[in-house]
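Following up on my earlier message about NDP. Here are the inputs again, as you asked, copied directly from the submission form:
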Amino acid sequence: MSGGRAQIGVTGLAVMGRNLARNFARNGYTVAVHNRTYGRTRDLVEQFGGEGDFVPAETAEEFVAALERPRRVMIMVKAGGPTDTVIEEFAELLEPGDVIIDGGNAHFEDTRRREAALRERGLHFVGTGVSGGEEGALNGPSIMPGGSPESYESLGPMLERIAARAPDGTPCTTHVGPDGAGHFVKMVHNGIEYADMQLIAEAYQLLRDVAGYAPDEIADIFRGWNEGRLGSYLIEITAEVLTHTDAATGAPFVDVVADRAEQKGTGRWTVQTALGLGTPVPGIAEAVFARSLSGHTELRTAASPLPGPQRTPMGRDEAADFADGVERSLYASKVISYAQGWDMIRAGSEEYDWHIDLSDVAAIWRAGCIIRARFLDRIRAAFTSDPWLPTLLADPEFAKELGEAQYAWRDVVAASVRNGVPAPGMSSALAYYDGLRAPRLPAALLQAQRDYFGAHTYQRTDREGTFHTLWGGDREEIRTDGG
Ligand SMILES: NC(=O)C1=CN([C@@H]2O[C@H](COP(=O)(O)OP(=O)(O)OC[C@H]3O[C@@H](n4cnc5c(N)ncnc54)[C@H](OP(=O)(O)O)[C@@H]3O)[C@@H](O)[C@H]2O)C=CC1
Ligand SMILES: O=C(CO)[C@H](O)[C@H](O)COP(=O)(O)O
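Thanks, got it. Here's what our run produced:
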């Protein structure tokens, strides 16, 4: 089959695909566009055809014929079964050396499976994370491609053109690693996104229910925070949301939205994967469970008569001091959740032999994506100066900040408990901090219990070997490793 003139094709033209296609076109590429339902293709060309060079295709065959070789087909359809259907449809029409890119939120194990199967057929498969939502897709997302280094040679320069730019001008994309590495990193991005959102939501509720601030006052506090070390897209949009008034009722918008958080699954995947890897990510897990708890109306209704503590209203000065403590607690907890995310990326990279550069991950999240934040530049610097840093908590600068925040952090968590305002993200982050820094954990007692009821054995602090105590007999200690 001879080649067409489009340098890239996008199939699946809902919010993400349509805007990515426009982004490619605005950057000077000729873009073939296709959608299962032709109406979306027609609408795109009618509304935005003037932005660049689009080649609309009604059928998959026309779409493939419109592409120059090697063909690059970007799929932006619903994750799961629909993605498999579309991959199969196009794999049939493509030729060895062509590249299929899946920019949906696919599970990285699906990406590994698809990559291996398509490799057998001579096709490159690039599972790529794309973050930034509708606006980012149009103006510059953060892009996390996996797949073979060869496929990045063909695709990378195009992705670098459409990606967001970090403050130092570098594009927010890089070859993350082979097969499922890109989708794995995107999954962890979303897990961190869940944790970040949960922590911000807790800060809001503490400021409202403990300090007594109104939503527009909290918006002002968040705007102030956004100028400092907490500066981030999520803090910025939270302030916007908190100033919005519901047109129908005149009430703060946040008060008319039902308090049941939904989820599409990437946060849950992060926790499930972390359990498999044996990496503790309690901050992300708490965020997933907090969403789940909010949605259990029947449990919440049944528990609603239970008593809580009496709250004492705060004066303005006390409230201002408390808000300062909440900033410290939010920042420290945020550092902890990012530390957990990076631990997980390292664990995944080791498990799957991906060789992911931890510093690069921070670099490509500095702009474009939902968790873009000022302090990502410092995470990048931490892993650049020490690629083997065992945890972000060991970086001297972050360690110093956590140490400085710890008293305020403890006070805020204590205030949440005293006032009956749940703050599972901040509490769990503090427990993680204390757990990691503890010279000795009660895991010793756990090991003894396991040995008592199940002869599961234990190791000693004072000598090598594996031991069991004869608990049911004379409590003699025996060595079980043959030593
Ligand atoms: N929305 C967001 O903010 C983000 C989304 N993503 C991911 O990007 C991908 C696209 O997201 P979004 O733009 O929101 O669109 P949706 O996830 O809502 O998917 C809609 C698109 O999928 C197509 N589609 C669904 N089923 C099939 C099928 N069986 N065969 C062919 N096409 C099918 C639809 O075609 P039709 O018009 O014919 O129904 C439409 O083009 C998803 O995987 C999503 O997880 C990633 C980052 C952010
Ligand atoms: O991928 C994303 C951003 O990068 C989306 O924001 C994410 O899909 C939202 O997830 P959920 O609906 O579970 O909150």
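One observation from looking it over: The beta strands are 8-11, 30-34, 53-56, 72-75, 99-102, 124-131, 142-145, 467-469, 477-479. Hope that helps, and feel free to reply on this thread.
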